[in-house]
Every structure is written in C-alpha cells, then in structure tokens.
Amino acid sequence: MLLEVRDLHVFYGRIEALKGVSFTVNEGEIVTLIGSNGAGKTTTLRTISGVRTIAQGSIFFDGKDISKMPPHERVKLGICQAPEGRGIFPGMTVRENLDMGTYVRNDSSSEKAKDLDHVMGLFPRLSERIGQLGGTLSGGEQQMLAIGRALMGRPRLLLLDEPSMGLAPMLIAQIFTIIKAINTEGISVLLVEQNATQALRTAQRGYVLETGYVVKGGSGQDLLHDPAVKAAYLGG
Asked: 145 and 67 in contact (C-beta within 8 Å)?
C-alpha cells in the first residue's frame, strides 16, 4: 500500500470540511475521488500535500506517518500535485515553470535534463512553447504545464485536482490519455475530477465523497454502473 488516509478530520475555522475520511491508494493504481462541489475532494488533496492542517487522523505514505511533515518534505518523498486552477507562474516561461518542479531535487543537471526531455515527449505542445510565458498559454496548455511541472518532481504519487476543468472535449480526452500513460510508467495517481464518468473509466478504484464523508467505494467499473452513483453524478 502506497498511501493510507485514516479517519481524516480537517477544519476551515469552525467548519468541519472532512469528517473522518479514510481510503487507500496502492502502488501503481489510479484512484479517483468523485463528489459534488463542497464534498471535500480538494481539501483531501491539499491535506495529503501538507497545505491543510490535520485536526484528527493520520496519513501514511509507504508505511511512514507523514501527518505532521511539511509540504516540501512530502514532495521529496514523491508526493507531487497539479493543483486545481493549475497554479502556474504566469510571468515565467514554460521552461522556468518546469524547472520549479525540480526545486527539492539534489540530483545532477543531466538527470533533470533527462526528465525535461521526457515531459517534452509527453507534451509536445510545451516543447513548441518552451520560451513562452506561462500566462500566454491556452487553458489546455496551462494544464499540461501544471502536470509537467509535477512530473519534474519525480513523483511516486501524482495528485491531480480537476485536470479537465474548462477544457474542450478533445483536450479532455488527450489529458486522460496522458494520465493513463503516466500511470503505465509506474506512477500512482490520485485523481479528483468533476467529469465523474471519465474519471471512473480511467481509474481502477474510486471513492464517493459527500459533505466530508466517504459514502461509497469500489472499482471504477462497479461505481460507473452503480444506480445511486449514476443518478447523482453521471447524469443517469
């Protein structure tokens, strides 16, 4: 087991956003969290990254309790996130944005150059715009840049928050193809995605969050065909 979230409670002021969330991600899996806005999906990812403080519960990564570990130390362990809204640096070039993904790495420039070539291979569009400012890219290109920057940290677990948000259908299909390709390289993926149908088709397993609780879990296929899930999240 790569990630284990146990009984997670997180507050925003007096409001309890997560009310005992528990789930797992195994090595090499794509796991998705689905649910409506405000269910706690983004809060869960931010807490795993170390951006939100845990009030109660714990997070284990590769058997190690990381509950009190600062965010940069979690990145060093291999937990890298492409956040909701992409979070790129608009005044920096594509190359500079990608270099920011390597800030905790102590390895050689040749190793970083090898990873840059790999990211360029996954996202040829970024290669064409390597010297362009991040803020001048299209939405789809910015999403590619956010994922590419996370990959430059050499993740073992990639956290993706709404990677298809605001994208045209053709680009959404492309992003999900790339997510599958990343996973075949041995990188585990925890995916938060409003496009629940696409997410469940992509993931091996999924969990449904409602108002801070995990209310259901199962294989992607089982959840895809679950009548309650279809009625609530899949337009069926």
From this structure: no
Q: Give me the average pLDDT of each 10-residue run along the chain (236 residues).
A: 98 97 98 96 97 98 98 96 92 97 87 94 95 95 96 97 92 94 97 94 97 97 96 83
Q: How far apart are CA 87 and CA 73, in angstroms?
A: 20
Whats the size of the chain, residue-wise?
236
Closest C-alpha among 153, 145, 159, 182 to residue 50: 159
Q: Is 54 helix (H, G, I), strand (E, B) or coil?
A: coil
What is the helix (H) or strand (E) element at residue 174, kind and residue range?
helix 169-184
Query: Distance of CA 232 to CAs 21, 190, 211, Å?
Result: 20, 21, 14
What token pair was written down for 198? 């696409």
Question: Burial, 11: exposed, middle or buried (Cβ in 10 Å; 0-12, 13-18, 19+)?
Answer: middle
Beta partners for residue 19, in sequence order: 9
Three-state DSSP class for residue 221: helix
